[in-house]
Specification:
Blueprint lengths: L1 H4 L3 H18 L3 H13 L1 E3 L4 H5 L12 E3 L6 E5 L6 E2 L13 E3 L4 E4 L13 E3 L4 E5 L12 E3 L4 E4 L13 E3 L4 E5 L12 E3 L4 E3 L15 E3 L20 E3 L6 E3 L12 E3 L4 E5 L12 E5 L2 E2 L15 E3 L16 E2 L11
Parallel strand pairs: 3-5, 4-6, 5-7, 6-8, 7-9, 8-10, 9-11, 10-12, 11-13, 12-14, 13-15, 15-16, 16-18, 17-19, 19-20, 20-22, 21-23
Antiparallel strand pairs: 1-4, 2-3
The structure holds 2-acetamido-2-deoxy-beta-D-glucopyranose (10 copies).
One 2-acetamido-2-deoxy-beta-D-glucopyranose binds next to loops.
Protein name: Leucine-rich repeat-containing N-terminal plant-type domain-containing protein
Pfam family, one: LRR_8
Keywords: Leucine-rich repeat, Membrane, Repeat, Signal, Transmembrane, Transmembrane helix
Length: about 350
């Protein structure tokens, strides 16, 4: 304004230098990252192999610390990998100051407690792996702010509550792994609109299915689906549009009726598990593995893939006959279907 015209030059310079100081004290640098990591270190209550205790020392650069990777451009921490270090501890709010972090991996430790809101500042994250820890509390709605996230692993923790519908914001998500938690309620339909998804693993929670019939219309890249124990009731027809589906686990879903013939549309399928349902009719010849505890009838298909399954894959289906079960088939029984695809043998679910 007009007064500025009358400021003596030295006042003007003073203002600029005050502004500069304010700017530099507010702008985070590698020192910010160092204090964030030291805060994390101080929240580790058990470090049996003394990994951080000796290595994360202020006498060396943060960028040489074990598990830490810095970017060359901004000289800030871009990746933190503390996986499988047998650490016990909690996540401090200061971790949210690692604002250049692209990858955060603390898989397979014993971190517990809930996740601090400050983590929302990590808006550059593409890879977040908290799998196989002891985190609890609800899955925060602010996960929806991680719009660059490609891989999210929260499996094998003790997360409770519902899956927030804000997950629908994660438009670049490829892997969503939240199996083996204590989640409940419906799976938000917004998730099924993320067309980049390749793996959806939600099994072994207390989720409800009742997926609408067109639920899988927008998931062309899906290759692994784990909806164990989700009370689906029926298999949504649109699932058979997911041509790349490789691994499908629908164990314990109150499925009734016959296995839809359209299952044979899934030509990439290598692992299909439908045990502990109320399915009846003939064993689907295209896949057939792992279908214990249903009401399937007739001869077990023979062929490369089926031959690798032991009889516990079929147990609990009184009407099934033929190898590997000890019950032989009547002469009347239909010749078992041959299956001679060149598949590698059963991939396990990771
Ligand atoms: C980081 O910024 C602080 C002020 O916030 C400053 O004192 C420190 O020297 C800076 N460190 C580096 C490595 O630039
Ligand atoms: C910390 O560990 C890294 C990676 O193993 C190693 O390169 C570095 O020399 C170690 N630093 C100290 C002070 O032990
Ligand atoms: C880092 O995070 C803490 C807690 O979230 C905050 O109090 C602090 O001011 C932040 N900034 C720096 C530079 O450490
Ligand atoms: C989970 O982590 C524990 C160690 O904390 C390890 O012994 C176990 O094998 C891991 N389980 C899986 C399935 O990764
Ligand atoms: C998700 O997206 C909506 C609309 O694009 C936006 O209003 C919201 O702030 C985003 N973030 C979260 C966490 O929901
Ligand atoms: C999981 O969380 C529930 C509810 O907060 C709690 O009752 C239970 O003890 C926790 N289980 C484990 C293994 O931490
Ligand atoms: C999913 O996308 C379809 C087609 O774009 C749209 O009609 C539907 O409302 C979306 N559903 C959700 C839950 O976002
Ligand atoms: C299964 O494949 C057949 C032949 O390719 C096609 O006509 C049918 O629409 C497909 N069904 C589903 C549910 O995708
Ligand atoms: C199967 O159906 C029977 C009879 O309708 C019912 O009692 C049983 O609970 C069902 N089992 C499963 C696993 O849905
Ligand atoms: C399964 O196989 C074992 C040995 O391979 C056999 O002793 C057992 O009787 C079989 N069970 C059934 C139900 O066929």
């Amino acid at each position: 304004m007009a007064t500025a015209d009358f400021l003596p030059p030295f006042m003007f310079l003073l203002l600029i230098s005050i502004f500069r100081t304010t700017l530099s004290t507010n702008s985070p640098n590698i020192t910010t990252d160092q204090s964030a990591l030291l805060a994390l270190k101080s929240h580790i209550t058990h470090d049996p192999h003394n990994l951080l205790a000796t290595n994360w020392s202020t006498s060396t650069s943060v960028c040489s610390w074990i598990g830490v990777t810095c970017g060359s451009r901004h000289h800030r921490v871009i990746a933190l990998d503390l996986s499988s270090m047998d650490l016990t501890g909690t996540i401090p709010s200061q971790l949210g100051n690692l604002s250049f972090l692209v990858s955060l991996n603390i898989r397979q430790n014993s971190f517990h407690g809930s996740l601090p809101t400050e983590l929302t500042n990590l808006h550059r994250l593409k890879h977040l792996d908290f799998g196989n820890n002891s985190f609890g509390g609800e899955i925060p709605t602010w996960f929806g702010y991680f719009t660059k996230l490609e891989r999210l692993y929260l499996f094998m923790n003790n997360f409770t509550g519902v899956i927030p519908s804000t997950f629908g914001n994660l438009s670049k998500l490829e892997t969503l792994s939240m199996h083996d938690n204590n989640l409940k309620g419906y799976v938000p339909s917004s998730i099924f609109n993320i067309s980049s998804l390749e793996q959806i693993l939600l099994g072994d929670n207390n989720l409800f299915g009742h997926l609408s019939s067109n639920m899988f219309d927008y998931l062309p890249r899906l290759y692994q689906l784990d909806l164990r124990r989700c009370q689906l009731g029926r298999i949504p027809m649109s699932l058979f549009k997911c041509k790349n589906l490789n691994i499908l686990d629908l164990v314990d879903n109150h499925l009734e009726g016959t296995v839809p013939l359209e299952i044979s549309n899934l030509t990439s399928l290598k692992y299909f598990s439908i045990g502990r349902n109320n399915l009846s009719g003939k064993i689907p010849s295209i896949i057939g593995n792992k279908c214990s505890y249903n009401d399937l009838k007739g001869p077990i298909p023979q062929g490369k893939q089926f031959d690798t399954f032991t009889n516990d894959s079929y147990i609990g289906n009184l009407g099934l006959c033929g190898l590997p079960l000890s019950k032989g088939c009547d002469n009347d029984a239909e010749t078992p279907t041959k299956l001679d695809r060149d598949d590698d043998d059963d991939d396990e679910i990771n």
